[in-house]
């Protein structure tokens, strides 16, 4: 009876230790190269010249390892997106601040590199603009794809492209897109 109890305790402790190793938490931050596209950017009376903006993102990650070659990585990020518009020599910046929740499926290509694919839901927190466009939507849905390079066991760098699938503004066909370069630390 003592052996069975001892074996059960050892198996339970080993299982708990394996579960703790399967989930890693971390922090990441980086640069966004964001832009907006769509047919409603200019009107028939005013036509805007549009350029991308450089902004930032930062937040928390959790990597949940399911098998040796596959993991799920949900993230909670603050990300700024938008574009710069120019009309008659006057420049206007439309910057949108989102809480973004990407859920990435990570496919390991080897011990250091993984392919990351998944959906992203974003909720508008702030809108800083000095141009009178249509109001921004409070929710945006997108698709994300990228690569992660594990520099060490805990340090990583990522490159990712996020394409907005829903309109970023009410009553207009304007969508966000962003290229993200990140560095992070898992513990």
TrEMBL record:
Keywords: Signal. Residues 19-167 form the Outer membrane protein beta-barrel domain. Pfam families: OMP_b-brl_2. Residues 1-22 form the signal peptide. SUPFAM superfamilies: OMPA-like. This is Outer membrane protein with beta-barrel domain. It comes from Flavobacterium tiangeerense.
